[in-house]
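User: Sequence in, structure out. Go.
Assistant: Echoing your sequence, followed by the structure tokens.
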Amino acid sequence: MSERTTDTGGPPAHGDGADPATEAFVAHRNLLFTVAYEMLGSAADAEDVLQETWLRWAGVDLAAVRDRRAYLVRITTRQALTRLRTLGRRKESYVGTWLPEPLLTAPDVAEDVELAESVSMAMLLVMETLAPTERAVFVLREVFDLGYDEIAEAVDKSPVAVRQIAHRARAHVAARRPRDVVSPAETRAAIAAFQRAVETGDLQDLLDVLAPDVVMLSDGGGLRRAVPRPIVGSGKVARLLAGGLNRFRAVTSAEPVQVNGHPGLILRFNGRIAGVVAVRVEDGLVTGLYVVRNPQKLSRVERETALSR
């Protein structure tokens, strides 16, 4: 059974008997981690942002703080924006395709449809196409429903400018997000069919579950073998998967899990985690496959990560 963790940086995870600053940070820590993760697509960097947030929060005069949650979100957002600009430069030299760091999530994330969509691999990749300030405004407004005045303080813009940025970001995302909201049952059925096809390595079974225009992205980070460019089309994707799976079927297994709020698979090779597969499902077929094999991005799939908004 997976272990659930709320250890996302900063002070101890429990605030019993702690000072007011620690208690406030602990009370909102999962929210702050979620804000940082949605802005960065990286759990490791989100944890660093929370550590920086704590260091700044610990020196704040609480008597002058009217809304501790809003103040903490403001610090987290500013730190995440700084980190996001640094990440942009790192991604320019990244080997192969860059994918967000996958998270093993609890069932309660899937039950919150808006939260689950916002942390899905497909949506995180859409948000990668936003400018840093647009992404911050979109996350704070659309996911966390913060007011424009509050967002303006976090991103150091006027409320009027934030409204304009929010409108622009919303239109940008709407043009690129998944076309339809798929029911959890439909997604589970598609991932179960895909799992069976993976386990058998049968080419026809794979073709039956893949949409004709399916896109497969694979992230090895230069440390593990991965396809260097997107693979498009059910025939190409199915043949690639079937060929690889048939060579190693005897020592490869697929475990169904919740990845970023949606059904996914953990792939194991000789019992060790070899990769994580997240899927995008539309009309009962898999339209997107996101395969993360970079070992530096697989540490968060051995235990559940708590998210909240």
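User: And one key feature?
Assistant: The chain has a mean pLDDT of 89.
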